[in-house]
Design goal:
The complex is a heterodimer of chains A (328) and B (446). By secondary structure, chain A is α/β, with parallel strands linked by helices. In chain A, 35% of the residues lie in helices and 26% in strands. Chain A has 2 domains: 216 residues, 3-Layer(aba) Sandwich (Rossmann fold); 63 residues, Alpha-Beta Plaits (2-Layer Sandwich). In chain A, β6, α5 and β7 form a beta-alpha-beta unit. In chain B, 64% of the residues lie in helices and 7% in strands. Chain B is built from 17 helices and 6 strands. A 4-stranded mixed β-sheet of chain B has the order 2-1-3-4, with helices on both faces. In chain B, α1 packs across α11, α9 packs antiparallel against α11 and α16 packs across α17. Chain B is elongated and about 95 Å long. The chains are: A alpha/beta (328), B alpha/beta (446). Chains A and B meet through α2 of A and α1 and α10 of B.
Chain lengths: 328, 446
């Protein structure tokens, strides 16, 4: 085992279930100490990839190393894992459950009770050690499950959809804990289909769609590379006619959006010059370059402009976790 | 402590220290205790039962009816003699017959002429009389007392009874008519009935079992009770924990705690830990029941009758049966989403567990039969078959015991191999439960 190589290294990893390709020729290298976002819509292959990293499933082909080991089985005590499908022994008391998991993760008996007390307090659930798991709410249980994933202070922390079902306050608390683990030095792989969450936390993002990796870049680089040549403007007079803006040669389209207007520029147009021309054409309350969102980047990468507006809309809804609402 | 032992310890503690387990463990001895107290009253002969009613007789000899009349007339020497004969015959048969007969029949004799119309007499049986029911019609053959000229063989009698007649009544009537025929035969030959009875009665004695160290009165039925006792212990140990393995695996899968566990241990470690934990639970239960059984034997001074090697074999065959059936039940638990879905896959396991109860009687009665020998080598039934044979009155030869152990170990290896493959794949499979074809595909794919 080496301590200098990447925390996770996947090379040409493929996994199929029957005729369905779950993960296809995936290459992924996550350096130690990094905070990676693993994003993609539901069914993209994120959980299958994570299960292969955890040696819960095994690839059909390709190679992988985890913390320098050929299999996560050899390094399970150094890995913290919060699965997407997570549960607890409902009749067990919180303290006993955490003790059991901690011991399975190799935490010594000495000082374990104090450690559990401190970790439970960290997620705002001090004093719940004596309660049965079934007495806790869903949100409280998720925090306990998070504690179970970090109780042994792992070198590598893999979180599969950690915020699903959490209220905003709990989401913020958990986000702080994830950042605290990162600050401690843990490598974190954070999987989500809600791209905004990854955008807020991660410094590097890997996008996966239908088993294929479509993006593997630092967030800052994505913002730079995927500048959408788009502006957002707000006229001083909300009822102003934007025909003059649409008539400008730099402008491809101008559409109303949430009380403002999204202006798409033609290819090769410098945004700074376009801003000056638009400001001259119409009195403005605000105009700025539109910052690319991961969701936009994903949609652009996946659709490549070829899909219909309905398909793009459905994909966006799916990414926002609203696919069901769209179809109904 | 290794992860396997940690898992085993959790399984043990989370099962044993529950009210349900403690109650479940104590409920069987409680039921046995209650049955021991009230059983004889519930299932023993009805002491209030009496044969009471009318017996019609067509005596073609004219010599049997007087005997019957005398025996059924209370307070007469003939009636006293009839009672003495009943008791003597019952004791000679080991008491069972006397129990079946109950008290002396209160039969009212209805004497019919020798030339009576038989069909008309049969119709009499169908006439309902609640105060004095018509119990039977006996037709004594003309040669029942003396043979026909030129013949040696004696005749008997025909007995006609109404529909749905109580078997005990029929036995009582048979007994009465039979003794009357014998009485008539003796009288014709000038023999004294009481003397003949004395000469032909030999009281049954209780045998003495002679062992290397001691002699004591033989406990009848031990060869019958011992196999069922050992098979029950084996069954209870395997069935109880097998069911526990099934339900806890389903619970861990359906509550989604399984993936958390698999992030800490391998599927094989999880499987091994659960098996060891539940085996310890079974051993605890078996030890308790075995201890109680030994205490009962000791209290009746019968401890010496138990071959202690049987206890060692019980443990050995329990481990074999437990690993075979327990691992397969755990695989079923891993393959399904809930207990309802497990029912179809459990059918073969249920048949395996029912088989020993079906085979118990033929094997314990004839422990050297071809059936007994084959079953004792056939996993997963071999443990049950061999324990029945070992605890029977004719234990098998030593080489057969060890061959059975060898077959059992091979069965364990096969069962654990299959179970591990299904367990590994099934744990993370949700949705449609697999059929047998899918299970076979999993086994081949894993």
């Amino acid at each position: 085992m080496t301590t200098s190589g990447p925390a996770i290294d996947l090379r040409d990893v493929t996994k199929t279930f029957g005729s369905q390709m779950a993960v296809s020729h995936l290459d992924l290298s996550i350096p130690r100490g990094a905070l990676y976002g693993f994003i993609g819509p539901n069914g993209a292959g994120k959980t299958t990839s994570i299960r292969m990293i955890m040696s819960i499933l095994f690839p059909d082909s390709g190679e992988l190393t985890v913390l320098g080991h050929k299999s996560a089985l050899e390094a399970k005590d150094k890995i913290g894992y919060l699965p997407e499908e997570r549960g607890v022994y409902r009749k067990m008391r919180v303290g006993a459950y955490l003790t059991y998991i901690a011991k399975l993760k190799g935490v010594p008996e000495k000082g374990l009770a104090e450690r559990i007390e401190a970790f439970v307090a960290r997620v705002g659930l001090a004093g719940t050690e004596g309660k049965r798991c079934e007495e806790l709410s869903k949100g409280m249980l998720q925090k306990i499950q998070f504690v179970a994933a970090i109780i042994h202070e792992p070198e590598l922390l893999i979180l599969d959809e950690p915020f699903s079902g959490l209220d905003p306050v709990s989401t913020r608390l958990l986000r702080e804990q994830i950042l605290a683990e990162h600050a401690r030095g843990a490598t974190i792989l954070f999987s989500t289909h809600v791209m905004q969450q990854a955008e807020e936390i991660c410094d590097h993002v890997v996008m996966i769609h239908r088993g294929l990796k479509v993006l593997d870049d630092p967030v800052s680089s994505i913002h730079h590379r995927y500048n959408p040549r788009a502006l957002v403007l707000e006229p001083l007079d909300p009822s102003a006619d934007l025909a003059r803006v649409r008539a400008l040669p730099e402008v491809e389209s101008c559409t109303a959006h949430d009380g403002a207007y999204d202006v798409e520029l033609r290819a090769g147009i410098d945004p700074a010059g376009a801003i000056a021309r638009i400001a001259g054409a119409l009195p403005l309350a605000r105009i700025e370059v539109k910052r690319p969102r991961l969701e936009d980047v994903f949609v652009q990468l996946v659709t490549d402009g070829a899909q219909s507006a309905e398909a793009t809309s459905a994909l966006r809804a799916e990414l926002a976790g609203q696919a069901e609402q769209v179809t109904t | 402590m290794s992860k396997v032992l940690l898992i085993a310890l959790r399984e043990f503690v989370s099962t044993v220290f529950t009210k349900a387990f403690i109650i479940g463990l104590l409920i069987f001895p409680a039921i046995v205790g209650v049955l021991a107290m009230v059983g004889p009253r519930l299932f023993g002969p009805d002491r209030n039962f009496a044969i009471s009613g009318e017996l019609a007789v067509v005596d073609l000899t004219g010599k049997v009816t007087p005997e019957l009349r005398a025996a059924l007339t209370k307070g007469t020497p003939a009636a006293a003699l009839a009672d003495a004969i009943r008791i003597a015959r019952g004791e000679a048969a080991g008491g069972d017959v006397l129990s079946a007969l109950g008290v002396t029949p209160k039969l009212t004799l209805v004497e019919r002429p020798a030339g009576a119309d038989l069909e008309q007499e049969k119709a009499w049986l169908g006439v309902v009389d609640k105060d004095s029911p018509h119990l039977a019609l006996a037709v004594i053959h003309p040669n029942a007392v003396e043979p026909k000229p030129g013949e040696k063989a004696l005749g008997s009698y025909d007995l006609y009874v109404p529909p749905k007649q109580d078997t005990r009544v029929e036995i009582g009537v048979h007994q009465a008519v039979r003794e009357a025929v014998i009485g008539a035969r003796l009288k014709v030959r000038g023999l004294d009935r009481a003397e003949v009875n004395d000469l032909t009665t030999v009281p049954r004695v209780r045998s003495v079992t002679v062992s290397a160290n001691a002699e004591q009165g033989t406990v009848s039925g031990l060869d019958f009770v011992l196999p069922i006792a050992f098979m029950f212990l084996l069954f209870m140990g395997v069935m109880g924990s097998g069911q526990g393995l099934l339900t806890t695996t389903i619970e861990e899968k359906s509550s989604r705690v399984i993936e958390v566990l698999l992030s800490a241990v391998s599927p094989m470690e999880l499987m091994a830990g659960k098996l060891i934990g539940h085996m310890a639970i079974s051993l605890l239960g078996m030890s308790l029941y075995l201890g109680m059984g030994l205490a009962v034997l000791t209290s009746f001074s019968l401890f010496g009758l138990l071959n202690f090697a049987l206890v060692v074999y019980l443990l050995l065959f329990f481990v074999i049966a437990f690993f075979t059936i327990g691992s397969l039940m755990m695989a079923v638990g891993a393959a399904v989403n809930d207990l309802r879905e497990a029912q179809s896959l459990m059918m073969p396991m249920t048949l395996i567990l029912i088989a020993p109860w079906i085979l118990w009687m033929p094997i314990s009665r004839n422990p050297d039969s071809t059936l007994a020998v084959v079953v004792s080598f056939l996993p997963p039934l071999n443990s049950f078959g061999m324990m029945l044979r070992l605890s029977s009155s004719h234990p098998p030869p030593f080489w057969q015991v060890w061959l059975s152990i060898g077959c059992g170990v091979a069965g364990v290896v096969g069962a654990v191999w299959i179970a591990a493959k299904v367990f590994k794949i099934g744990l993370l499979m949700f949705g449609k439960p697999p059929d047998f074809a899918t299970l076979v595909r999993w086994i081949r794919a894993a």
